[in-house]
């Protein structure tokens, strides 16, 4: 693969589409300003702009070449300023293949190559090559010479894999975050409607008609909510369609998507922490999302910016799942150290103060709406109790399991060597009551740190953890 | 993490912080004076000006006369062969452990105020966090930087 190659000619079309999208503003501007009296000029100008986009697209395609030479991916591109970019095979962290609808019609794919560098953009992006070429390129860049023969021997079927079932997919959609918002809206809407009903009873003449109107309104609202919910389900299904996780040697490969097919490669070495999140809606049904924190410049976003390893599964299945794919993150012990009772009041106070302030304001400004912050207050108290109950940690050799809840309950397993810094914080009240706040930092996305905080642990627990973390030998 | 770290930072830090605070407070006082002028010339509401003046006076007292000393008293650090241990914070006391093998780079910095007192600050970066030890004397700061940089070995398994 040493001869410089161009992208597939369909890349020109993609460039044109991107070009038009980027200059859409100019098109609209031209149209609006010249619409009245100089329509002809407007069309001419637009035509010129379009021509310019087409020419640059063709030139961009013509100038862009890539080749694999001496263990390096070498790109040459640029119309006016010629650029050469060489990326060493050994520095490549991940190679992602993405196919949108256009790609899929012509059996093409987009190849994105990422190194550990920071930034949201991939280091090299081949927007359009044939699928076979893309896969060949990936195989070539992935293989480090010693492993090359070895890899050919193993058949595809030998790799561990797990695919989302239709039922799971449906469940994932039905319990996706959007339903929470919808329920809140529904609750609000219904209680508001109730307030309007009594006034209608007085007027007998209009009662029937307005009653009917009300019925239509209620139906309309329910219908809208159902529609939104369905849209949420469809959105999730499109995103996680055929979600498959595969373990290929030292990589985790995830493929997913209905309209845009994505393939993401995550080297095991880049994984910083693995765990599962139980969202408020899924927790009652015993379902969780398996997530991981990955270091590096990946722009793949999941829930709370963590990478989704599997969208939905029963909490009991998580252990078996990790055993299969990431055995070093399995935790079998179950005696978690929780927070002391005296920590509970901090959680309640922290959560209720904003709600109380809101209640105060609403009470004086709109007294008749006081019930909204009251409900909020109740929710906050409930949540704070759960936050206190769920938080905790467990040391298991070199592994540390932490559990916390902001809204969703998150359980993460961290390795000692992956923790970048350890922080203990105490305010004046904490010192009086022997409590402390723990903060652990690991490497996160795009060169930023990801920080895990457990508030109000017993101070002796935090000190024990610091002994566990400290590299100094204790005498 | 039961005992605080051993070393304090340079005592001149108090002076340096005081000067920085004075510069910031000067801006607040200028605003207060402008308020008074506005009150005299265009009848700007006096109560607003008075509130600003009181707030400025309080913040001046705290940030120039009280906090620098408390802050200095709390600021401690200790560098071991295997890790760095830092403590700081006035109301909220924060203690941090940074293992040497996690240190990515160390640098010393010196602004004009620190320079006047022959001080420099050392900042230590890991892949996820940055920590600063402010206001050490020049020699200690550069010794510390060299020491940490020598001790910071790259972990084989690093990303």
Description of the structure:
The complex is a heterodimer of chains A (475) and B (159). Chain A has 475 residues and is an alpha+beta fold. Among the domains of chain A are: 149 residues, no CATH class; 48 residues. Chain A has 14 helices and 21 strands. In chain A, the strands form four sheets. A seven-stranded antiparallel β-sheet of chain A has the order 7-6-5-11-10-9-8. In chain A, strands 14-13-12-18-17-16-15 form a seven-stranded antiparallel β-sheet. A four-stranded antiparallel β-sheet of chain A has the order 1-2-3-4. In chain A, a hairpin with a 2-residue loop joins strand 9 and strand 10. With 159 residues, chain B is of the alpha+beta class. Chain B has two domains: 66 residues; 75 residues, PH-domain like, CATH 2.30.29. Chain B is built from four helices and seven strands; from the N terminus they run βααββββαββα. In chain B, strands 1-2-3-4 form a four-stranded antiparallel β-sheet. A three-stranded antiparallel β-sheet of chain B has the order 5-6-7. The chains are: A alpha+beta (475), B alpha+beta (159). Chains A and B meet through strand 19, strand 20, strand 21 and helix 14 of A and strand 4 of B. Strand 19 of chain A pairs antiparallel with strand 4 of chain B, so a sheet runs across the interface.
